[in-house]
Amino acid sequence: MWQLFQFPLCPFSRKVRLLLAEKGLTYDLVRESPWEMRDEFLDMNPAGTTPVMVAEGGPSAGTILIDSQAICEYFEETVEHFPLISGSPSTRAEIRRLTAWFDQIFFADVVAPLLHERMKKRLLHRAAPDAGTLREAMKRANTHMDYVDYLLDHRSWIGGGTMSLADVAAAAHLSVADYLGGIDWEGHRTTKRWYAGIKSRPSFRPLLSERMEIISPPKHYDQPDF
Hints:
With 226 residues, the protein is an alpha+beta fold.
């Protein structure tokens, strides 16, 4: 059995959880707050970041997987069911490009500042968020959503003709930003329609039911039809 070390609003852990669910794999969730810098966790991952997956038994016993992309690629290579990086070489390259775009650009511009201002400041310092930082993050979110609208206006899914890891990564990051009130869905009907479909999938339901302590999401957060 695998163990996944994560916390509810880690977008990279959500990315892994969605992939595992789509592939029908079971695992145990282990709550890890990386800002606590526990020695036992740092022994597994000196970088101190989530997610981390550890195999407790079976043929993979003792295996430790670190970094969401490495974890996703591992299960993509070892589990044939519901491939999420498939198609021609150029299609697979596009899926990886867009996955990296959400993991790097969208995260840095939108999700990271929202997490810092609305989660970490409140949990660790009991401090109020900086309004200017939040406005800038939401402004950048709106710009990035324009790009997602463009992609979905020309494709069935973000990465191409079928659901892929690009959709999984996008849903993971958007769901965290939405939980933290950083997404204005007005004017982004194309992306909103795609996200409603993602929210309706069985793989997504466990994420929608989870809550981060002392931080509540908007009322529409867990409603597929919003």
